[in-house]
Amino acid sequence: MDEMEVSALFFDGKVIGVSLPQLVTRKVIKVEPGVKGNTASGKVTKPATVEGGYVCPVPLFINEGDEIRINTETGEYNDRTATR
């Protein structure tokens, strides 16, 4: 896992708060092939497991090996980084 810069708030020598970056980039290590179905809603997703074990719903075009950015506040898929 990469090193991530975070901010910590201390009080009396104890951490009382941590701030993460808004977006983190993670490599998709497991994802099922997308199945086209009812796409009328425009929000068709499939589960993808990323480095570190987090499972995030992603669009159908995401494949294993892709790098995606995840919003740390919501835990949701944000976008895919530049293609290989």
Which features characterize this protein?
84 residues; two-stranded antiparallel sheet; 5-stranded antiparallel β-sheet; OB fold (Dihydrolipoamide Acetyltransferase, E2P); mainly beta; single chain
Descriptive overview:
- The model has no long low-confidence stretch (mean pLDDT 88).
- The two termini are 20 Å apart.
- 0% of the residues lie in helices and 48% in strands.
- Strand 1 (7-11) and strand 2 (14-19) form a beta hairpin.
- It has one domain (22-80): OB fold (Dihydrolipoamide Acetyltransferase, E2P), CATH 2.40.50.
- The strands form two sheets. A five-stranded antiparallel sheet has the order 5-4-3-6-7, with no helix packed on it. A two-stranded antiparallel sheet has the order 1-2.
- The chain is mostly beta strands and 84 residues long.
